[in-house]
Amino acid sequence: MVDRKDLRPRTHRAGLLASIIAVISLAVTVLSDDHNAGFGHTIAYREQMFLFVIASLLLAVQAIPYLVHRVARPIHHEADPATIPKRAASD
After folding, report:
1. CA distance 36 to 42
2. What are the residues whose beta carbons fall under 8 Å from the beta carbon of 12, sequence distance 6 or more?
3. Is residue 79 in some structural domain?
């Protein structure tokens, strides 16, 4: 079951992953010089670059706070002995 506390970070990671996929797919489209937008429509190079820049900015806007929060969060590899509950004598 997804904990309510865990839902927000998962949503942020999903958005970050979607932005990364969008930037990669737009980069491949721009680099391959493919102007086909599907369904018989074409898109100009300037419009492709505009979409690529917007997707890159969105990725940066999502990635920077995510990374800042991740770096600011303390990582505990070892538990503090003072916070570990003492075992009962029967253990």
Report:
1. 5
2. 62, 66
3. no
